[in-house]
Structure formats: C-alpha cells, structure tokens
Amino acid sequence: MIDELRARFGARFLEIARGRIRRSLELMGRSDGADQLITELHSLAGESSMLGLEQVAEMARNGEEDAKQWKQGSTTAKLYCARTVRTLSQRIEELASSLEEEAGASAGNATDSAAGNATDSATSTEEPGSIAGGQDSSQRAATDAPDSRPAAPLGDNSASHSLPGRPLRSEQAGDQEAAHGAGRRDLVLEHRVLIIDDSRLSGEHLSEALATAGIDSRLAMNRDAALAEFVAFAPQLVVCDVHMPGVDLHELCSALRRQAPEPVTIALLSGMSDAELARRARAVGADSHVSKHAGIDQIVSHLVSLLGERHIEPCEQS
Predict the structure, then answer these.
(1) Both 11 and 133 in a single domain?
(2) What is the pLDDT along the chain (318 residues), one digit of tens a residue?
(3) 197 touches 203 (CB < 8 A)
(4) Residue 163: which H helix or E strand, with range?
(5) How far apart are CA 158 and CA 154, in angstroms?
(6) Are 143 and 164 part of one and the same domain?
(7) Pairing relation of β-strands 160-163 and 288-291?
(8) Do 62 and 10 fall within a single domain?
(9) What's the domain count of the chain?
(10) Is residue 169 part of a domain?
(11) Residues 6+ apart with CB under 8 A from 206
C-alpha cells in the first residue's frame, strides 16, 4: 500500500514539504516564530510518516522538539532547530531528485513496453491467431499496457472535502478475506469514517488507504467543518489529529458526542509516541489512539478493528 501512496502523492508531498521548509526558514528569523514553526514541523513529520519517509519524519520531530525548547527561551535549541531545518531542506531536494529519476526510469520502461507491443501487433497482423508464450499477442499487449488512470486532482482549499470509498476489486477482496475473514469485508463496506486533520495531504493519504479497504471517508480541516460533516455524514468512527491550531480536543470530542444520535468511536492520530498519545486520549475522552509512526498499513488495520468492535468503553478522564 505504501508504494501506491508514494506514487500517487509523492509529487504533492514534495511541493508541500518545500513550502513548509521555506516558511520554517522564514520563521527562524522572527522572534515570535516558534509557535508557527512547531506547527509546520509537526505537520511535516506526520505527512512524512504517512508515506513511510521515516528519516524525514524523525528529523522533523527533532526540529519540533527544538522549536518547543526555543519557545521556552533556549537560544541553543534555536540554533539546533535552524540546523535541522537546513538539513531537512537538503533531504527534501534529495528525495525530489530520486523521484525524478524514478519517473524517468518508468517513462523509459513504458516506451520499451510500447515498442514491444507494437512489434507483437505487427507479428499478429502477419500471422493471424499466432501464439507466443502461450498467449495471443493482442492479449499480451492488453496485459502489458501501462496504467493510464489519471492522477488525483489537487482539490480545492475548502475546509471540508468529500472523499468517497471505492468498491473492493476482486484481488483486494481476496486479501481482505484472508486477513479479516469473509464476514469482515461486508462489515467494513458499511462503515463511514470522518477524518479531522488540518493537513489536507495527511487526510487524503489516510482516505486513500481506507478506500482500498472499501471504507467511505470524508475530511474536515477545522472544528466547524468537522461538526458540520459529522451531522451530514453520520460516521461510526472519527479519526482526529492531535495538533491543530485553535482546536481544543476535549471540547471537540465532547461536542461530537453531544451531536451523535448513537455512540461514536473517536480515535486520536498523531506523530506522538504511543505513551504520549495514550495520555492525551485519556485527557480528552477519546476511545483509542494510533501513532503515525506505526505506518499506514498498521493505521488502517487498527481503524478497521475499531470499526468491527460493537461496544467500546471510552477512556477514563484523567
């Protein structure tokens, strides 16, 4: 799954990451830039983790911690943070070069494949019905043709974004049955997930991954959009990012539960450690939590298991 997400979102990630690095460098020159710098680096860490780019994610988390120390008045931490941001900038450009090389190699393979298909087609014209390697050449051309499906659109800048799930393909259905049992696939297809995250990229990463499991989802990027989507979409599971500027998680969780016509499961998702997330979940009254460090496959597996649970007791308030 992670390779598919990188292929689909890699270029957008680089564009967004470059913007975050550029803003971070600008914030380093401001005496009041620590708060916004923490947000930029936190978001970059989460977006990197969702794509399995753990080296970038770890550097961003280190920079975030340094920025927090800078906020407390440590000039040494500010120097460390500046060095980390510059290193991140270099790493992002290395990733961009690697992506361009991979794209060039893919284009070359597609050209070679097209040339081979053209040769097979000519052979088929000269010798109708001829078979090579146990397969008719026209069938072989159809099998080898590169995937021409369009890439995902960038989307608008609205706070709420509908991201419908897709039906499972036959091979995905087989994988789903093998992993969760034949009954689980039908169960999952009935469920809806509301993703609350101020990073559109992270939200769309997760939505795309959930869609491959047949789960319908929508993304809300602030409190008001989340409450509106919650009423309109009626999700059984809410996945909420922890670090969102201007959002009180405890108040948001309480507001969601007040509006829910039936019990709803709330799970926190963040780049924090499991221990820190567990403490935060207890504090805000969430039912569960999962760290972005776990990787997208484990995140989806955990959310699917939550959807399959009939009764979930909320975490005790701290």
Answers:
(1) yes
(2) 677 777 888 888 999 999 999 999 999 999 899 999 999 999 999 889 888 888 999 999 999 999 999 999 999 999 999 999 999 999 999 988 887 776 666 666 656 665 555 555 554 444 444 333 444 434 434 444 444 434 433 333 345 544 444 333 323 333 443 444 334 444 444 789 999 999 999 999 999 999 988 899 999 999 999 999 999 999 999 999 998 888 999 999 999 999 998 889 999 998 888 888 999 999 999 999 999 888 899 999 999 999 986 444 444 444
(3) yes
(4) strand 160-163
(5) 12
(6) no
(7) unpaired
(8) yes
(9) 2
(10) yes
(11) 50, 195, 197, 217, 239, 269, 296, 299, 300
| Element at 156 (helix H, strand E) | none
Query: Which strand ranges, in their side-by-side order, compose the sheet holding 237-241?
Result: 160-163, 216-220, 192-196, 237-241, 265-270, 288-291
Q: Which residues contact 290 (CB under 8 A, 6 or more apart)?
A: 267, 268, 269, 277, 298, 299, 302, 303
**Residues 234, 165: Cα–Cα separation, whole Å:** 15
Which of 154, 179, 199 is the endpoint of a domain? 154
Instruction: Say which residues have a Cβ less than 8 Å from residue 272's Cβ, sequence separation at least 6.
Output: 242, 280, 291
| Residue corresponding to tokens 């983790």 | 49
CATH number for 237: 3.40.50.2300
* Token duo for residue 281: 């979940």
Domain end residue (candidates: 121, 154, 187): 154
Number of H helices, E strands in the chain: 12, 8
Determine the Cα angle at 191 with ends 189 and 196, to 5°. Answer: 130
Domain span at residue 263 reads: 160-308
| pTM attached to this predicted model | 0.65
Q: Of the candidates 305, 310, 270, 309, which has an alpha carbon nearest to the alpha carbon of residue 290? A: 270
